[in-house]
Amino acid sequence: MKCRKCGEPAILELRRHNAAFCAPDFVDFFRNQVREAIRKHRMFARDEHVLVAVSGGKDSLALWDVLIDEGYRTTGLYLDLGIFDYSVESKAKCEAFAARRGVPLLVTRVAEAVGAPVPVIKNVTRRPPCSGCGLSKRYLMNRVALEHEMAVVATGHNLDDEAATLLGSVLHWQTDALSRQSPALPSTHRKLVRRVKPLYRLSERETAAYAFLRRIDYIVEECPFAKGATSIAHKEILSRMEDASPGAKHNFLFGFLEKARPAFERAEAVTLNECARCGQVTTGTVCAFCKLADQVKRATV
Ligand code: AMP
Ligand code: FES
Ligand code: ZN
């Protein structure tokens, strides 16, 4: 197997692109895909300050690494979910990365913002831990960006994440979720920052290869609450399809974005208000985050 660019021995084959690359040319390919994502969806401009949400995993740290090398002004945001050793270790990975690259990292504790860490929220709400956790993450990313006057938050969602989310939404025909599924969500209110996913063109295997080649030290373990999550089952199904037919994940996601998504966009027409408690954006009177914080307070005092 030879590198498509230089003809030297390849280290990685990308069947969906019908190509193989040596290490330096793969790193180049990876960065090009990120550049293309930013350009195509006008994710952010050269002079914008980008808040990069980092979990300590391979994807978000690989994203941060590329954006730093591309010369963007970035600040990392780590949300400490308070999930036992998993949170302690993932926070340490983010801190070590920030120190090594000499970039600023903000840390926000969910326990402080909501009143309790994710394992307690899970018991109080009696819902899957990921629901209160996801709600808190989205809310806090937006709030921290506003507090620091940054207009855009970038997350490390990759092609596998996006294709699995799409499959989940399609299986239940969740039209709201389908209208919101995009590599770049614009700001529709002055208190809502843009959300972008510059890795959506790259698979999980490719971000793992990039992190390895760039010697990025990341947390390998998944969140302990992720076990048995339907998103994992969806990823497995899609990976089996990909094995049988390289490019299946890509075609599924990109076909949706290009051909089907516009049909769901009308569902976006909702009125946005400012939460009576915290002032962040909500479709009701009090936002879901403030309601969650109330529920936690009632159950823990
Ligand atoms: P996940 O939902 O865990 O697959 O994560 C998707 C993306 O959300 C990651 O690539 C990060 O950009 C962001 N993210 C997840 N967990 C955290 C966290 N604890 N702190 C900051 N960002 C996070
Ligand atoms: Fe949110 Fe696991 S990361 S519950
Ligand atoms: Zn609120």
CATH evolutionary superfamily: HUPs
* Ends distance: 63 Å
User: Count of DSSP helices?
Assistant: 12
Low-pLDDT sequence parts: none
- Write down the Rg: 19 Å
As laid out across the biggest beta sheet, the strand order is 5-4-3-6-8-7
The major β-sheet equals:
6 strands, mixed
Query: Approximately how much helix is present in the residues?
Result: 40-55%
Bound molecules: adenosine monophosphate, FE2/S2 (inorganic) cluster, zinc ion
Name the CATH architecture. 3-Layer(aba) Sandwich
Estimated structural class: alpha/beta
* Name of the CATH class: Alpha Beta
Question: Based on DSSP secondary structure assignment, what is the total number of beta strands?
Answer: 10
Average pLDDT value?
95
- As for the CATH topology, it is Rossmann fold
Summed up, the domain count is: 1
How would you describe this structure to a colleague?
- By secondary structure, the chain is α/β, with parallel strands linked by helices.
- It is 51% helix and 12% strand.
- It has a single domain (31-267), classed as Rossmann fold, CATH 3.40.50.
- The protein has helices at residues 23-40, 58-69, 84-101, 110-114, 118-125, 129-147, 159-171, 175-180, 204-213, 230-244, 248-264, 288-300; strands at 12-14, 19-21, 49-53, 73-80, 105-109, 152-154, 184-185, 194-196, 273-274, 281-282.
- Strands 5-4-3-6-8-7 form a 6-stranded mixed sheet, sandwiched between helices. A two-stranded antiparallel sheet has the order 1-2. Strands 9-10 form a two-stranded antiparallel ribbon.
- Strand 4 (73-80), helix 3 (84-101) and strand 5 form a beta-alpha-beta unit.
- The longest helix has 19 residues, at 129-147.
- The model has no long low-confidence stretch (mean pLDDT 95).
- Residues 275, 277-278, 280, 287, 289-290 line the site of zinc ion.
